[in-house]
Amino acid sequence: MHRMWPMKLTCGSLVIVLSGCVATGSALAQTAPTSTAQSPAAAQPAAQPAPPPPGGRPTAPTRDPKTPGYVTATNATELPDGAIPPLDKTGNFVLGPAHPAAPEMTDQDGVPHGLVHTFMMDSSASAIYPGIARVPGTRPELDPTNPAKRIVQSGPAKYTRRVAVYIPKQYVPGTTAPFIVGGDGPDPLLFTALDNLIAQKRVPPMIAISIANGSGDAQGSQRGLEYDTMSGRYAEFVETEVLPLVEKQFNVKLTKDPGARATMGCSSGGSAALAMAWYRTDLYHRVLTYSGTYVNQQWPWNPETPGGAWDFHKTLIPNNPKKPLRLWLQISDRDNFNDSDGMHDWVLANQQMAKVLADKGYDYQFLFTKDAAHCDRPVRLQTLPQALEWVWKDYRPASK
Q: What is the DSSP letter of 241?
C-alpha cells in the first residue's frame, strides 16, 4: 500500500529555503535531492564524488559468523530463520538468511499518521560547517609514509541540505518531547515504523529529526567531515544549528534529558551516531547503527585517534570508564571490505565493537545478518521496529 504523507507547507526565510517555501510529502521525499553541493568560489570547481578504482569496487567476501576470532563464533544466539532477537535479552545474535519485513514497516489500518515537515539549510548560514568538497576527478590516495593516512585534494564548496521533521499525531503542543536524530535523511521508513510503534505504545511519542548530509562521501567530502570525524563537532552542529530551527519553525519543545534522546544512522552515519553519544554523553544516551563504519575513514588525520572510528573498539571503549549508553548494532555477512591499511573491514570492526561492549558491561544488542549487504534494506525492514523498541525499552518519562 502506497503511503500518502499528510501535506504541510512551510514558508519563511529563517534558513535558506528553495523558492521560499517547501511542501513536504511522499513525492517530495522521493524526487528531491537530500543535499546538493554547489560550485566552490572562483578558481575552485565543485567537487563530485570520487570515481571508483579501476574495475569498480571489488565484491565484498561473504563472512561466516563462525569465523575464529568473531564473537559470533563462540558467544551468540543463532535465531530461527526469519526471527528477530527478543526484547528482554542483550548480547550477540545471528539472523537470516531470510529477512521478512516486519508488519510495522507498512501502513496499518486505523493508525494515526504523524506530520512530516521539511526545510532546507544552506552552508552559508553555518558557523560549524561552511562546506568542503573533493577536487573533481581525484580520490583519496594512500600516504606512502603512513598507510593509515590518506592524501586528499579538497577545498571550500557550498552545499544545501534537507531536514525532515516527523511529529507524531500524539504530540501535545507545548509539552517537552523525546526525540531521535538520524543521518542521511529524510528517512520515510523511520517515520512509518514510529507511526505504528507509537500507536501500539511500544515506544514513547517521539519527534524524529532526519538530517541530510552535506554532500559527497568519504575523505575530503562534507559528508565525510561530518560523519567520520572523531569528535563532538557534529553533535554540536545538531544542537546549536538544527534543533533550535526545529523548535522555532514547528512549535515543538525538545527534551534536554540525554536519556530521552537517541541517535541513529547507517554506514558512516552510524559511526557519527556513536560519536554524538560518545563525545557528548551529556546530550545522548541511546544509539542505533546499521553497518556502522567503525573503520579508518577520518580525514583530516588526527594523532589523538590515528585509526579514526577503528579506535572506538581498539582504544576508546576498552580504555575508558563505561558510559551510560544503550546500543543496538547490526552488520551484514557481505558488508564492506578492503585491505588498504588493516582497518577497513566493516564486519571485523563491528565484531570487535560487540566484544569490547560486552567486556565493559554495556547494555547492547549486536546482530550479524546472513545473506545481506551494506546498509541492507530487507534487513532494515525486518529489524527496525525491534531495534527502536529495544533501544527505548528502559525509557521512563521524567516526573512532572
A: I
pLDDT in tens, 58-111: 689 999 999 999 999 999 999 999 999 999 999 999 999 999 999 999 999 999
Identify the three-state secondary structure at position 262.
strand
Residue % of the chain over a pLDDT of 70: 85
- Evaluated on CA atoms 57, 347, 193, 172, the torsion sign reads negative
Write the DSSP assignment of 285-336 as a string of letters: -EEEEES---SS--SS--TTSTTTTHHIIIIIHHHSPPPS-EEEEEEEEE--
Residues 381/102, Cβ–Cβ less than 8 Å: yes
pLDDT digits (tens, 9 = 90+) for 254-265: 999 999 999 999
List, in sequence order, every residue forming a beta bridge with 263; answer none if it has no partner. Answer: 181, 287
Return the amino acid letter for 320. N
pLDDT at 57: 60
Which of 301, 10, 268, 255 lies closest to 140, judged by CA?
Answer: 301
Question: What pLDDT, in 10s, does the model give residues 277-327?
Answer: 999 999 999 999 999 999 999 999 999 999 999 999 999 999 999 999 999
* Cell output for 183: 543521518
Report yes or no: 96 and 84 within 8 Å, Cβ to Cβ: no
> Does residue 337 form part of some domain?
yes
Scored b (16 or more CB within 10 A) or e, 295-318 reads bbbbbebeeebbbbbbbbbbebbe
341 contacts 67 by C-beta, under 8 angstroms: no
Structural domain total, the chain: 1
> What are the pLDDT digits (tens) for 18-47?
323 333 333 223 223 345 554 343 333 333
Mean pLDDT of 336-357: 95
Q: Is 92 exposed, middle or buried (0-12, 13-18, 19+ CB in 10 A)?
A: buried
Task: Give phi and psi for 272, each to the nearest 5.
Answer: -65, -40
Reduce the DSSP state of residue 92 to 3 states and report it: strand
CATH of the domain at 137: 3.40.50.1820
> Does 12 reside within a domain?
no
Q: Record the cell numbers describing residue 3, joined without a space.
A: 503511503
The closest alpha carbon to 189, from 31, 392, 29, 35, belongs to 29
- What is the distance between the alpha carbons of residues 9 and 116, in angstroms, rounded to a whole number? 10
- pTM of the predicted protein model: 0.86
Structural domain of residue 153, as residue ranges? 26-39+64-391
In a domain, 52, yes or no: no
Q: How many residues does the chain have?
A: 400
Q: Would residue 193 count as lying in a domain?
A: yes
